[in-house]
Amino acid sequence: MNNISEKNQKAITFSLWIFLATITMLFAAFTSAVIVREGQGNWNYFELPLILNYNTIALFLSSLTIQWGLVSVRNGEYKNMKNALLITLILGLFLRII
Fold this sequence. Notes:
This protein is an all-alpha fold. Helices cover 80% and strands 0% of the residues. The protein contains 3 helices and no strands.
């Protein structure tokens, strides 16, 4: 990324800040919509299926293992990288099965 001019770097940084502001505003809008909707009194509550907990845990663990693999490659630890990718694959297959 060293070959990017300073002008382009500033444009990229500004665009990233605009993107983050947009995401923040969307989150605030959706959150306020939920709060207003709940306040109307006819909000339907329901119990989430237990499988969503397993799905969330598997996604979180696969994120950790793929990051572990990336760090291992950068440090030249290819055995750890293979282990991390294998675990990530197994977690991905678990997500596919459930």
